[in-house]
Amino acid sequence: MTVEELRDRHVRLLRDRRVVDHLDAPAGPAAGTERYHTWTQVAADPHGDRLARLVEVRVRPAAYHPARLREQQHTLDALQPEVLHLARLAGWDTTTPVLAGVFPTGTLDGLSVPVPGRGLLVLVNSSLLDLLGAALTIMTAALPNYGSPPLLTPEQASFALAEALNAHLYGNGAVGARRLPRLSGQRAALVSLMARRGTQFVLAHEAAHLLAGHLVNAGRRTDPDTPVGALDARSVGWPREHEADRIAAVIMLRSLDDLGPRELEAYEPCLVGAVLLVLFLHEVADRLADELGVVVPFAGNHPPPVRRIQTLVEHLAGQVRTPRALDLAADVATWLEDRLDGVREWLRLVDGAPQG
Ligand SMILES: [Zn+2]
Residue 212 in contact with residue 244, Cβ under 8 Å? Predict the structure, then answer.
């Protein structure tokens, strides 16, 4: 029953922060349900309309609208148990109950919140789930690897990515980007797999702090600038953050254990790509936030993403089982970097646009 107690604690936390009263209440007519219905519609409306849409995200009131909170919590509920199962397979076991709860923390890392006598509550930023899903969808639609011709041109992809990053940086975990059309077939399967594994890596990183005993003597750090005001998190120091990344990678690689050689060749690059994409997005979001003067909650709690990427790539190189395991991650990094000038241009235009 302790996980249920953690869930109650999570709902109380949401309520105290005026995020939502009941996680399980049926979602009302949701704000942010606007979507592109076809791929040709993406970024095809007039320049001024597109700019206005980016501006609108920034002038929304700060109050958190939990339109998609319930759906996101279902995702976390489905993903979290497998992480602890994989951890057990990797030799890390714990009797401490863990609940991953969606929360507008504003950071692309999870936040560990020990609840004395109950277990560990892991807060996952609602915006992380949105950004990861959007970036994967855009990438899969734009790269020719998954079907030719691609569904998006580079220019469409840059604007769609600008919408997603704009929503992450300014949406307070409440306002998302206009949603993209649904993918089908191989593309849909890839996005779903990589989104699942990327999110699990974030959960596994937080579980690793617990499993490796990092939380026992961890310091407390309060950040006053999250979308819901001051929040507490544990601060364990950079060496332990790198250790948590390494443990999380080992845990996630266990998800490939039952695969035959040919499946392993297909899936290992996706897993590695998903894990590193989380850190690539972190890096891009931090860089843009810095350029735009946006405050990033809990900045400095974790090592800079560039350092985490370097350390993790070195570690992964010694752990993977197939020769091309890191190739997809390299493609993803290049693709993201190539889109960045276009994204930056849009975000700067918003800065110069009349607001409110
Ligand atoms: Zn950490």
Answer: yes
Cβ–Cβ under 8 Å, residues 133 and 161: no
Whether the Cβ atoms of residue 122 and residue 111 lie closer than 8 Å to each other: yes
Within 13 A of 331's CA, how many CA atoms are on the CB side? Answer: 18
**Stretch (H or E) spanning 189:** helix 185-211
Other CB atoms within 10 Å distance of the CB of residue 33: 12
Strand bridging mode 119-125 / 111-115: antiparallel
Spacing, Cα 41 to ligand 1 middle (Å): 39
For 210-236, how does the pLDDT look when each residue is reduced to its tens digit (9 = 90+)?
Answer: 999 999 888 888 998 888 888 888 889
The CA 243 to ligand 1 mean position distance, Å, reads: 9
Instruction: Give the Cβ contact number of residue 62 at 10 Å.
Output: 9
Whether 168 and 211 have beta carbons less than 8 Å apart is answered as no
The one-letter amino acid code at 211 reads: L
| DSSP annotation of 60 | S
Residue 54 C-alpha to ligand 1 middle, in angstroms?
31
CA of 249 to the centre of ligand 1 (A): 13
313-338, pLDDT tens digit by residue? Answer: 999 999 999 999 999 999 999 999 99
CA dihedral 238, 210, 247, 225 (to 10 degrees): -40
Distance (angstroms) between ligand 1 centre and the Cα of 320 equals 22
**Backbone dihedral angles phi then psi of residue 235, each to the nearest 5 degrees:** -120, 120
